[in-house]
What does this fold into?
Amino acid sequence: MSDIRIATAEDQVLLDKEAKYCSYGDTVHYIEPPRIFSRCEGSYVWDTEDQAYLDLQMWYSAVNFGYANPRLNNALKQQIDTLPQIASQYLHKGKIELSEMIAVDAKKKFGLDGRVHFNVGGSQSIEDSLKVVRNASNGKSLMFAFEGGYHGRTLGASSITSSYRYRRRYGHFGERAQFIPFPYHFRGPKGMTKEEYGSHCVQQFARLFETEYNGVWDPKVGSSEYAAFYVEPIQGTGGYVIPPMNFYRELKHVLDQHGILMVSDEIQMGFYRTGKLWSIEHFDVQPDVIVFGKALTNGLNPLGGIWAREELINPKIFPPGSTHSTFASNPLGTAVGLEMFKMTSEVDYGAMVMAKGKYFLEGLQDLQKRFPIIGDVDGLGLALRCEICGPDGFTPDKATLDYMVEEGMKGDMVVDGQKLGLILDVGGYYKNVITLAPSLEISYPEIDLGLKLLEQLLVRATKR
It folds into this structure.
């Protein structure tokens, strides 16, 4: 096992400049000293010493289709040479065709007419969705959201994100959320199946509407104080927690009974991360609003947006100028988004992702059998989780996972004569979950390689 890595002289000069000139407000250093990277390709990134790291988190699922994907990169390059920029009040072909592609797909899957509205990223698109639902509910500013949920760090988005840490110093900006328990079966009551626990959580939520004294419902006029329920179908930052398949269907029934909209936040799980375009598709419900971002452009351009039902977003209800961003629907982003849709339509992309995810999950299950500190593994497509615990296989062990992350970033593991590092992401309520979001283009040999590197980290962790 190597000693603590020391930054090179060249890197140290840059780190000293960062310490003096850069805001740390937009930065989180997971290790010290932080790595400085110089290039990327496929499932790998290289630091300034040309040390390769296998990346199993792909920029928080923004780079679903692999670093420097040639086809998507070329779409961006071609657009630069034709129409690289145009003010958002003017039309261009890419905006219209990408909107059509998303809306037609939603009509086919959910049976609902709707429209698409763009902005420059996930958090900003959450803000736009808040305007849509507040407008549709005559200005109601209260929302439901989940414990463990994450929707962004702008003022409105942080108000519906369950971590108080993200809003503690800034107060609230109009919206407030009541946070509802998520069916996190591994840490739920014992003695219930996953499906039973899902139903139990819905029943506890439905109880809020039993009488006016439960605080959210006026039975005399049939009106709720809450406008919408914001859901991540599979929790992202919360630890890739996958609910039972009956959960959202039963939850949506309660919401529809009481006139509360369901907003599906697909920013991290959209664009085939779970084997479907939208992760909500796995659960047999019709969302009222979908929010998307990240992998729409494979991380090449900060483009996000929303799809909403026609009744919520048509021009009479949500008129021109309701929101605006200088860079919304920019032609570089829409060109890459269109190419992404074309690329994923040419093969059965969903089946490919599900097959790779099944293979990867089986490898994680094998590691779980051999390492008692793995308390839980689960996955849907290539959204996978590995929960690191104490020797009892249940008590959260953040310290051990932090150690594994630091060891992975040393870049000193050897597999078949190749020296490598491993990039992991940390999530979960207790920050003890490896949230695995590999490239959807990852090869089976690269999955095997990732499992071997994980095994080496687990051996180091248990022997330290």
In short: The chain has two domains: 9-68+348-463, 75-345.
